[in-house]
Specification:
Elements: E1 8-13, H1 21-32, E2 36-39, H2 46-56, E3 60-65, H3 70-84, E4 90-95, H4 102-108, E5 112-115, H5 120-135
Parallel strand pairs: 1-2, 1-3, 3-4, 4-5
Helix pairs in contact: 2-3
């Protein structure tokens, strides 16, 4: 299925984690794949991320985490997405996330989890497939 418009992705760093090289690299690769990427920068709150996602009318919210707080941040993000009426947006997470926590994140409602061992192509294909599927409904 050919994409009729550019996929819009918000890439965010939530919390006190001050390392964003991975998020910047992911943003660059997604742009190279033809997606429109909005990078929020470091140390954003859940409210700031969700408000930016609404303001920018994105298809995907991507959160990069290295802090180990992925479960609690995912819970807060999903709750705020529900509250703000954007539960239909994809929430993906990436970074340093133990394999044992991935099933719990998916069960909570995170659409996809990409660790350091994931390839950029995996992430790009996942986003395209999921956004196209959502648009065809």
């Amino acid at each position: 299925m050919e994409q009729s418009r550019r996929i819009r992705v918000l890439v965010a760093k939530v919390g006190l984690d001050g390392h964003d090289k991975g998020a910047i690299l992911v943003s660059s690769r997604l742009r190279d794949a033809g997606m429109e990427v909005i990078y929020t920068g470091l140390r954003k709150t859940v409210d700031q991320v969700i408000n930016s996602a609404i303001q920018e009318d994105v298809d995907v919210i991507g959160v990069s985490l290295l802090s180990g707080a992925h479960l609690s941040i995912a819970e807060k993000l999903l709750r705020k997405m529900e509250e703000k009426g954007i539960k239909d947006k994809l929430l993906i997470m990436g970074g340093v996330i133990p394999d044992k926590d991935i099933p719990e994140l998916i069960k909570m409602g995170v659409s996809g989890v990409f660790t350091q061992s994931s390839s950029f192509n995996e992430m790009i294909d996942f986003i395209r497939e999921r956004v196209n599927k959502a648009e065809s409904k």
